[in-house]
Amino acid sequence: MGAGTIKTICFECHSRCGVLVNVMDGKITGIAGDKNHPFSRGFICPKGRAVMEIVYHPDRIRQPLSRNKRSKSARIESISWDQALERISEKLLDCRERWGPESVVFGSGTTRGMAPYLNHFLSLFGSPNFMAPSNMSGGPIVVGSGATCGFTLVDPDYAQSRCMLLWAHNPAESWAGLYLHDINTGLKKGSKLIVVDPRRTRFAEKAGHFLQIRPGTDVALALGFIHVIIEKNLYNKDFVERWTSGFDQLKAHAAVFTPERCAEITWIPAEKIIAAAVCFAENAPACIGPGMGGVCQANDAFDLARALTIISAITGNLDVAGGNLNCNPPTKRRSCYGTDYSPAKNLPPVVAKKKLGLDTYPLLEFIPIPCAPQSVWPAIEEGKPYPVRALGLFANNSVCAYPNSRRVHKVLSAVDFLFAVDYFHTPTTDLADIILPPAHWSERDDVEDLLMKNHVFCQIKCVEPMPDCRDEKQIMIDLARKMGIDSYFKTVVEALNHRLEPTGLTFQKLADMGFYATPLTYKTHEKKGGFKTPSGKVELYADYLRSMGISPLPVFREPSESPVSSPELLTDYPLILTTGGRNIVFYHSSHRNIPCLKKQAPDPLLQIHPDTAEALGVGAGEWVELVSPRGRVNIKVLHDPNIHRQVVHAPHGYWYGEKDGWEKLNINIITADKPLCPVTASVPIKALLCRVEKKQEV
After folding, report:
1. Does residue 47 sit within a domain?
2. Is the peptide bond prior to 329 cis by the omega test (within 30 degrees of 0)?
3. 320-358 b/e (C-beta count within 10 Å ≥ 16 → b)
4. Which three-class secondary structure state does DSSP give residue 281?
5. In this structure, what DSSP letter does residue 246 have?
6. Residue 611, Cβ neighbours under 10 Å: how many?
């Protein structure tokens, strides 16, 4: 590749903004936002602008590595690709022979779009076990809204909305390239804005209604919205009568969630709850933007997704312009999580039912999301419900990404065989037997459709991979060949063309176009005579859930650690800890070693009210210890006069730059991995108890 500018998409996060990459002599020399991209419209975040530092970082892993974890020295050494793939092949085939194919689990992080290629490989290998953090990022929304109306609540039509409700969602930091343009378009047109969040975010500052909620009480607030809307006769009577079932049961259930009771639970004044609910109901079309983390990290995440879908339904805002859209990617069954690649659809039923977690979370057989990590750990620790002996992780720093990090570290240390695929060394690659170096997004071709509404985008390779780094799709092709899985893809182009077949396009044709979109459709339920639910209607009262031991109505569960449910802990842990608010500079635990990014956010900052800090004798900028019943971490004080005096917020993902940083800086050392959401296995990390201590000098 010579000189020129290549139009492609960035994949430093899931927004996948359009970018223009400058190349000279086969090397990236610059990057800018693509103003013609239909979503990002020229936006590019710090991560995207850091592409050259990421690709050419001196610490990037550039050759396969082997580690003998069983030796005292655990020495790491370079090996060839053939040696690495041979060793992985031998281990996986041995596991299949001795313990069955289900003893092998592949896991992916939330980046690089590998789900279809890993799922396809696992289907052919015979394992139903693809692990991803879906249970704490989007999965409960998919399951909760899917169980209610048959499609997901993840495509708000902000640009055409008259009222936007951002619920535990901070798009300025988390999904800027995907949502900011449409949100700002809606605001310029006069759209109302409601924000529900424990923190005063940038959009909370702009909101006509900011509901500063006590962490973990979202379902109570959602039921309060439903109560107000019904009691004031603000619901869409025509839609409710024609297209919903169980309204009377819902009305009776919500009756006890009066604004006054909700105020006691949520710490939001009753008059603010009423005003916000009325605003949403009276300004149709209105849409709800649920936070992928904020809505999905609680012991009642399924019920929250159900309740938000019900709010949208009873106000007539489902599947309409300006509401929450029912979008299907043009790739249909071959989309990122399409059924053509799903082991559940491609394995014999008796094997598919072995998917880890189905014995505890039966609804996930019918509205599937990947295996929750917390369903995999017992299979490694105790062999329950059967042993997992081999684990392959792709762009997945499990040690830092998942709650209860010491448990995760112990589990990954105990598994018989672990291989990891990542750009840089992490606390997770430190535990791997084999480490493989992948190509960067700028060094590979791909197609992207996940959360892209009615679009599929082409990711065009800008430069050749760094020597000895390989496209992860090519890694899977090479591994399949080594293992004798002959029906797997033979080339990357074949894999991409297979993904695109429902569109009638080849990868080359899509590359010429940049993206392909199908027309948006509205009121699909009217055209098809109903919703994709057991009753054909929106299930306000989902009677069919009872057979799986699930409440047919959304249930508010007080967090297991809170001033209400565990008052005995308050003496030692008087503050409510909420975690994981995003910072646009980083993507979860990645990018921490990139100089231009680390400079912008070098330290984990504890947001704490100045009065609370003063009472504790800690000043702004001071390093302190944040302590929970599970341990302690170091963190730096940031005075925030807008946070509740009894609430503190700590970011996630910090670990780099300090010896054993995964134990000293990583917030997941002190987070909990139980109790899980009883339907989706979501983790309860948005509402815990903690205390702040002055750091002891060593």
Report:
1. no
2. no
3. bebbbbbbbbbbeebbbbbebbbbbebbeeebbebbbbb
4. helix
5. -
6. 11
Same domain flag for 204 and 281: yes
> Can you give the residue range of the structural domain that contains 249?
156-325
- Residue-by-residue DSSP string for 217-236: -HHHHHHHHHHHHHHTT-S-
Q: How many residues does the chain have?
A: 698
Q: Say if residue 111 is in the same domain as residue 174.
A: no
Residue 364 lies in a domain: yes
- DSSP assignments along 55-93, one per residue: HT-TTS--S-EEE-TTSSS--EEE--HHHHHHHHHHHHH
Domain boundary at 325, 340, 361, which?
325
3-state secondary structure labels for all residues of 291-354: CCCCCCCCCCHHHHHHHHHHHHHHCCCECCCCCECCCCCCCHHHCCCCHHHCHHHHCCHHHHCC
- Please report the pLDDT score of residue 1 as a whole number: 47
Q: For residues 207 and 26, what is the distance between their CA atoms, to the nearest angstrom?
A: 47
Give a yes or no: residue 320 inside a domain: yes
Query: For residue 465, how many C-alpha atoms fall within 13 Å in the half-sphere facing its CB?
Result: 20
The owner of tokens 């605001």 is 187
User: For residue 463, how far is the Cα from the chain centroid?
Assistant: 29
Q: Are residues 416 and 478 in the same domain?
A: yes
Our separate counts of H helices and E strands in the chain read 26, 25
Rounded to 5 degrees, φ, ψ at 392 are: -115, 125
**pLDDT digit string, tens, across residues 594-636:** 999 999 999 999 999 999 999 999 999 999 999 999 999 999 9
> Which 8-state DSSP code applies to residue 470?
B
Q: How confident is the model at residue 71 (pLDDT cuts 50, 70, 90)?
A: low
Q: Rounded CA gap, 373 and 589, in Å?
A: 17
What DSSP state is assigned to residue 658? S
102 and 195 share one domain: no
The answer to the question of residue 676 being in a domain is yes
Write the pLDDT tens digit of every residue in 235-248: 999 999 999 999 99
Q: pTM for this one? A: 0.97
Fill in the DSSP letter of residue 691: E
- One domain for residues 182 and 258: yes
Q: Do 202 and 106 fall within a single domain?
A: no
* Same domain assignment for residues 354 and 275: no
511 in the same domain as 447: yes
Q: Which residues pair with 195 in a beta bridge?
A: 166, 210
The enclosing domain of 580 has a CATH number of 2.40.40.20
> Which of 292, 325, 358 finishes a domain?
325
Total number of domains constituting the chain? 3
CB 200 within 8 A of CB 321: no
